[in-house]
Amino acid sequence: MKHPPPHRQVIPDFRPDPVASDRLVLFRDLLLRWTVRINLIAEREPTLVDARHISDCLQLVPLLPAEGALADLGSGGGLPGLVFAINNPDREVHLIESDRRKAAFLLDAAARLGLLHVHVHAVRIADAQHSLPPLAAVSARALAPLADLIGFAHEMLPPKGVAIFPKGRTAEQELTQALGRWQMSVERFRSRTDADSTIFRLSEIRRAPE
Known about the structure:
Blueprint: E1 9-10, H1 18-38, H2 46-58, E2 69-73, H3 81-87, E3 93-96, H4 100-112, E4 118-121, H5 125-128, E5 135-139, H6 146-156, E6 162-167, H7 171-178, E7 182-190, E8 198-207
Parallel strand pairs: 1-7, 2-3, 2-5, 3-4, 5-6
Antiparallel strand pairs: 6-8, 7-8
Helix pairs in contact: 1-2, 1-3, 1-4, 6-7
């Protein structure tokens, strides 16, 4: 018997304010300029970057906790970490990226965008934990299997902390595999930019009993 697909919630509406909108345009242009040198993203057209990356990350903003420090794992081109910072300029946002060329981009972009509370950690994720403050949320986009991401989140978050992980068509398969190792509260949201994608918001992460 085929089971119905799990229910996915609708993401609340969100629109950047005018200052954030201007910064997002500047961020996109910086992303394209640096991509010529270090290949941060595949797209080269501004409209494609807006649709494929900026809008995809903006939909995550209303899923964040109302306050507290944020960390983006394997931040790469700052997606979604810099998008979070642009829309929350007074919040502490930590971008973890071990590739030093990409970390250099993140530093340059944060400076040019005037994001004073962004901190770039040019280290492996496993080595970043001791340099981070208490976190309210972690995120990662197109980085690793869900079970591995949950492991990072478990090490970094307090019990009430939130992990936000977008996943594609294999989302439920990855979750099933992860549940062999982890227990957690799971919320699912339907992606606004890709009908086949699911955004997981996870909390109360703990190891599954042996």
